[in-house]
Design goal:
By secondary structure, the chain is mainly α. It is 56% helix and 5% strand. The protein has a 6-stranded mixed beta sheet. Strand 2 and strand 3 form a beta hairpin. The relative contact order is 0.08.
Length: 560
Amino acid sequence: MGVAGLAGLAGLAGLAGLAGLAGRSPAPLAPVCHAQPAAPAAPLPSAQDAREEGIYLLAHKALSAWDVAEARAHLRALLPPGAPEGGLAAERGLSPMYDLVWGRALFMEGRYEEASRAFDAFKGALGARAAPYEGLMREAYDARDTLKGMSEERSPDGRFVVRYFEPDRLLLPYLFEVLAASDKALSEDFAYSPPSPILVEVYPTAEFLGRVSSLTVEEIETSGTIALCSYNRLMLTSPRGLARGYGWRDTLSHELVHYFVTKLTRNAVPIWLHEGIAKLQEARWRGRGGLQLDPPQEDLLARSLEANQLITFDQMHPSMAKLPSQEAAGLAFAEVHTVAAYLIERRGYEGLRALLAALKGGAAMDDALDGTFGVTLSGLWDSWLTEMRARGFRRHPGLVRRSLRFKRPGDEGEPEAEYDSIEEKEVKDWAHLGELLRARGKTVAALREYRKAEAKGGDGHLAVQAGIAASLIALKRFEEVPAALERVRAYYPDFFNTHLYLGEAYLALGAYEYAVEALEEAVGINPFHPAPHAGLERAYTHLKKTPLAARARRALEMMR
């Protein structure tokens, strides 16, 4: 959902000028990095001399910009020529501060066990005086304890290292495909490519994400946060951690955009711009981009503009994950998506890159915007708002906002489409009756009841249209299925069964290219359901795409 990281380290303020090192923009639009809590404001333990102290300052500044290579270079300057990196301060004859900084660098490389040992040495040397830095070190200890037993695999192009627990091995080929496509597109758009390797961690549940980030599980579920770009890595909740999966491919790409922006700007971009760019770019791996609001986004934005109830940039700080509901977070994303698109429409990627360069150079947001787009921040908000009102975003009748459903102990599979979102009693009754009849094998009668519900309530109800599609497939009336699902496919792009039913219908009709499109979308929501993989094996075999057919077959074998 968002980016988080290591800005400022104002809590290490004992070194002159350390407070706000990475925070170039004035509050409340400071950099968005918040996931590693800074230690309380307290002086650093004195280093042995001013040179050593200055090097630690520079290394901390580099780490706040997620530049581990630069931090390592600074620390190497403390060692004799040719001496190997690492070790502990006591072995090197250095201040205990070396252990704190070196541990932080190791943590940002994902080397949790080694980082913990360095932090242990720091605490051992300082005793009670290390207490103010406990929050800084706790992240490494939590990651070490929570993520034991993860496997690791490098992408075929060598750009990404993915860590996962064994049940998520099935994700790897699909995940590598998204990362490679997104990496290529973003490198072109930003005229920049971050150094390799990029670390990606896949967690089985939201509880794991809560344990290894600054977010609580309650905040994760309230806001619908399922991924972060934090601590110099991408952090993704597996789709198996949600009751009905989710659009994890665009989410993964979204977090990679955050990674690019953070690395490119040395962590100098405020949350609203970070999230706007990420939302704008998250579908670039598909070849899409720009202002393409899905009906749920458009409907939410249209209603909020009409009621003049918007989320301000200030309210988005320090993280979208702190907003009070999934709907509030959804509105904030719709807003910043359109703001970023508005900037691109005015000056293209050249203008966006110029804005990011100005922020990286230390410009305040007002100055950076004025120099690249000729407006201040308040002027941007006003002109954007005027433009959005003029565009006349549409309401979508019958659309019901669906929230992510996180799995609870004992939850298995995807629940049936919700009936409680249907307001008209007759429509709900007919749909429920159709479901009962279909469960008893009375498919013709069931379809009749579903059609009554559709005639009365329209074709935008998931429960009704899913029932119609399932009945049509059972009756082998495959050619009628796409029309039955057209509206709900647009309204609810992350509903697994819609894509599965479409894929089954297209397979039966011999429309294998369309079947592939639908079934790949199903895999992009819940890759742990065997049906789309079985369909993809058939479709790719017919299309003579042998490697892709083999990929689907391997996924099926992993689920047996």
